[in-house]
From TrEMBL:
Domain Glycosyl hydrolase family 36 N-terminal per the UniProt entry, residue ranges: 57-294
Name of the molecule in the record: Alpha-galactosidase
Keywords attached to this entry: Glycosidase, Hydrolase, Signal
Active-site feature positions: D500 (nucleophile), D562 (proton donor)
Family: Belongs to the glycosyl hydrolase.
Amino acid sequence: MRGTLGSLLASAAVARAANGANSTTAITADGSNFTLTGDGVSYLFHVDPSSLDLVSDHFGGPATDFTPPANIYAGGWSDGLTNTRREFPDVGRSDYRLPAIHIKHADGDTVSAFTYQSYDITAGKPALPGLPATYGSDSDVSTLTVRMYDNYSDIEAVLSYSIFPKYNAVARSFRISNNGTSNISIERAASFSVDLPNLDLNMIELQGDWAHEMNRVIRPVQYGETGFRSTEGYSSHIHNPFMALISPTTTESSGEAWGFNLVYSGSFATTTERFSHGYIRVLLGLNPLHASIPVAPGDTFQAPEVVAVYSSEGLGGMSRSYHDLYRNHLSRSNHTFQTRPVLLNSWEGLGFDINQTSLDALAQQTADLGIKLFVNDDGWFGKTPYARINDTAGLGDWIPNPDHFPNGLGPYVASVDSFTVANTSEKLQFGIWMEPEMVNPNSTLYTEHPDWVMYQGKHPRTLTRNQLVLNVGMTEVQDFIIQAVSNVINSANIRYIKWDNNRGIHEMPSPAADYEYMLGLYRVIDNLTTTYPDILFEGCASGGGRFDAGLLHYWPQHWTSDNTDAADRLTIQMGTTIMYPPSAMACHVSAIPNGVTMRNISIEYRATVALMCGSFGFELKPVDLSAEERAAIPGILANWELINPIVISGSFYRLALPDDTNWPAAQLVSQDETTAVVFAFQQQATVKPAAPPLRMAALNATAMYRSNAFNGTYSGATLMNAGLNLPWQVEDYQSMLIYLYKQ
Ligand code: DGJ
């Protein structure tokens, strides 16, 4: 359907009550008013008839009417557009707040004047050229495109709004086409911009660092700017490209929450700006420091998309919408809804001590424990003088070290494949680590192509972990990576690849190089995941440094953190689940004392923490396990068999957070709602007070449940309202796995 400002009354779609909207009735438009309606969300904006600017009306719970805006005193300097709630704020025409779009014209000026032209409504959702994005069929999602034009500069902006009614989610992006005769550059591009009314809101973000990812931080949305960004070139450990806004009374299970998540893996920035009238502008998109993206006459710039979710059922409701949306309509991996094999990764056990003898021994121990996938992490490649025997050499030279694999990977992997996994008839599978976007100066690749790295002519090429970043924006580099990874995959029976990335980007040839890099990276990954759909890819960036929705479009899972200490990991994992599904987290049981924290925690607790993730495994030398630890392994694997299918497709509830209580807990409910599993923890031994009863969530109140935790049956109502008193001992770091089976 298509409409113009003239067709004011030609309703483009039949409006329906907010509840029960389906994708074909989710958008109504008449060229003046626009309404997107989900099962529990409405998003309203309109065209101001005099300025032809787009005005934000409502983003929140169901609403069907356009009501008059707040009465703002328009005296003094603050008049015109700065007093309105804008959908697509540009620069230089009386709006003093930060813009969503900032364009530099050839003559150096940066004033824009976008005005409304026309709209389209289509069933489904078009792909974003070159970028990862949510997708869906005509019955899942529908899309409103709104065309704006700057007549002074001959530039078109096409805004895209896609609504997934079932998930209360709106995906937004825009593209800019340069129809003029001279070059322009995009200085700022916030894919999502909305002006909320004068509400009392708090901002939640996930802040951290290496081995300290995804810590929940909350602060009030104050006057001026409240925000954060990544300038690492990647989404980063420091801040994730996600923010939630919540009402002051919002909890895990009640109250309003708005989530905003950028589907992109490069530098980003997000800001709220509360102006003098109290209106709150929300912006999320590229980091302006890594923009200045040139758009030549006739060319188009495409902004990545932001997925915004509204929930009236607290942060938990928001999280579950993201989890379901991302599993069904973001991830396109074959593995997303498949259980993942238990694995053993060589990194924490062997480090760089990689040779056929050490690997054979570890692979044999892996199979003997009943573990199904053996992963050779770092240290298998490069040739003297660039052999990867430590982290100073070899990255870029993706050939097996001939000293250790004289016949290449093929025969070696075939020998691993001959091991039988204990207590099964299955053969051990093999996976391998790569870090394809990086190069050590000590490598054949760098010697041959020193100009393939990210560098700025006159500046030194600064190293981190002795390595440089390849400029993946270059087509030659993209083709090299595709070939190098394909060669490894084709050389042996590889079932899994861990794709690592261990430094941020420093010197760039231009600010736009980050965006160009991301387009190149997505081209590479799109090619490889399409060519090899059965390989299980796991993203990694020194742990969770690139755990983002962009990569989850292609890969089903990501290594969550290099910190495998179960106490810290619980916080990291609970943080990660704010918007990413637990099925996307990779989590391992490692040896004690822990390599990062030196903490000693029982194997049961370590396993209970790791079992809440889609990809569960071990990262230790089985021969070093104590007799007690070894005896626990069969029970852990039996729990994995029961839990992994529920993690993969079930619903996740954070019952209590480790930073709020000594007794954190989480719960998964199977998709068919017949089984729930509760992960319960006591962090520190306490003499007094007693632990509060553990109250479950999302059970059927009138159904009866049996459990491994009590005799007989209890009703769902009892378990949710009275809860269970668990028999904690006066001991640090205890855990329980409680299964509830609906009768
Ligand atoms: C960083 C990753 O996060 C680790 O798991 C491991 O793969 C090392 N790199 C290997 O160098």
